[in-house]
Specification:
Layout lengths: L1 H19 L8 E10 L5 E12 L4 E5 L2 E4 L3 E11 L5 E13 L4 E13 L4 E12 L2 E13 L1
Antiparallel strand pairs: 1-2, 1-9, 2-3, 2-4, 3-5, 4-5, 5-6, 6-7, 7-8, 8-9
Length: 151
């Protein structure tokens, strides 16, 4: 129930911000914080970031999206994504990478990710993301929502 409340609260905040702000272009770099709600995990604090690596075309870039998840242990995520500009404020992306889980296993697990960067203002980007981590004998599916400072 807590996960659903966090998800609904996040959606309400994003909707309120969008109705009050003029959309802006999503920048090449950002850092921020938010929450992760997993289907097999408790709600956790997340530090999120994005750095453009390569321009692939007029509307497409390759980005690195490191993040830290703070739960009972710390997890480092390092996906690489292909980002596509739908318009000046919406950038859907998809990619793959690895997750280092410092949960006693000290294992590196493959992951796939997809999401949407949404430029709310010139310096505020909301990132909504879904990821699947492939752990030995199980998969871990989760959703993150972060508010980021763009620079």
């Amino acid at each position: 129930m807590m996960k659903l409340n966090v998800a609904l609260l996040s959606a309400a905040v994003v909707s309120a911000m969008a109705s009050q702000a003029q959309a802006q272009q999503v920048p090449d770099y950002y850092v921020g914080a938010g929450v992760r709600a997993g289907f097999n995990d408790d709600t956790s604090f997340v530090i999120d970031s994005k750095a453009k690596a390569v321009e692939l075309g007029d509307r497409t870039t390759l980005s690195v999206r490191p993040s830290l998840v703070f739960d009972s242990s710390t997890e480092l995520r390092l996906p690489i994504s292909v980002d596509y500009a739908l318009d000046q404020a919406l950038y859907p992306y998809a990619g793959a990478g690895v997750a280092y889980n410092a949960d006693g296993r000290s294992a590196i697990d493959p992951m796939i990710t997809a999401g949407l960067d949404w430029g709310i203002t010139r310096s505020v980007v909301v990132d909504i993301n879904g990821s699947i981590l492939f752990k030995p004998g199980a998969t871990d599916t989760e959703i993150t929502a972060t508010v980021n400072y763009a620079f």
